[in-house]
Write a structure and sequence with these properties.
Layout: E1 8-13, H1 15-19, H2 28-42, E2 47-52, H3 70-93, E3 99-103, E4 112-113, H4 116-124, E5 128-132, H5 142-152, E6 157-162, E7 167-168, E8 180-181, E9 183-185, H6 186-191, H7 199-207, E10 212-216, H8 222-227, E11 234-237
Parallel strand pairs: 1-2, 1-6, 2-5, 3-4, 3-5, 6-10, 9-11
Antiparallel strand pairs: 7-8, 10-11
């Protein structure tokens, strides 16, 4: 049996990942695929917190939101993350997993209020916790919300799932000669303006020495391999002298 490399992790998925090739709403095949990948990680005995973006439904900074009041648009985006959390909860429960959805915006009929002490208790009892509604405040991205939750639950690492193999020097979907960085330090990522996360989220990771792993979610088994210590994708951490 593979040995786990971490005790507690925070997994961050974009909302667009849930849409698959449909580019909006949900792709049930993708939901079930992600549920199987997450279950394989859970079976290692790792405590899992999850965060999903809402971009498959609505993004507060999208072109569609440009004519709207920013605060209202951001709240709509936060509500979209709750919908995604409930969809993922359903898919994970079909895999036999016990899942809690917690929301930074109170809506007690569909999600539990965000109380970090309760979240940690659930994790320690072997339940998966999906954190939704970002930080509960406008002007913050779901990346920032994910990092905040990772720090609050004292995660060993935040793992960001993407559609490419890690962090590149330029967009690999547009430039075939793009170079992958297997390892990065925070300072290099900042100086080269590499898009690991938005700046607020990235600064939180840097200031609290929270490692970031960026990997390709489309490769089956990648997540489990990362969690058993295999070097997959890009790891961002403090520079070692």
């Amino acid at each position: 049996m593979s040995e786990r490399h971490f005790k507690r992790v925070l997994l961050k998925f974009s909302g667009e990942a849930l849409a698959g090739e449909q580019h909006s709403n949900f792709d049930q095949a993708v939901l079930q695929y992600l549920a199987r990948e997450i279950k394989a990680a859970y079976e290692l005995g790792i405590q899992l917190g999850l965060v999903f973006g809402g971009g498959n439904i609505f993004r507060g900074i999208s072109a569609e939101a440009k004519t709207m009041d920013r605060v209202k648009a951001d709240y709509m985006g936060m509500l979209a993350t709750v919908i995604n959390a409930l969809a993922m909860q359903d898919s994970l429960e079909t895999q036999g997993l016990k899942v809690r959805v917690m929301s930074a915006i109170q809506m007690i009929d569909v999600a539990e209020p965000m109380v970090i002490r309760h979240a940690i208790e659930y994790l320690e009892h072997g339940e998966i916790v999906i954190f939704s509604a970002g930080t509960g405040r406008p002007y913050f991205s779901t990346d920032s919300g994910a990092v905040l939750r990772a720090l609050e639950i004292k995660a060993d690492v935040i793992i960001k799932a993407t559609k490419v193999d890690g962090v590149y020097d330029k967009d690999p979907l547009q430039f075939p000669d793009a170079v992958l960085y297997p390892v990065l330090d925070y300072e290099t990522a900042l100086s080269k303006q590499l898009r690991v996360m938005d700046q607020t989220a990235f600064a939180l990771c840097r200031d609290n020495n929270l490692p970031i792993i960026v990997y390709n979610l489309k490769v089956p088994g990648n997540l489990r391999r990362i969690l058993t210590g295999e070097h997959i994708g890009t790891i961002v951490t403090r520079r070692h002298s």
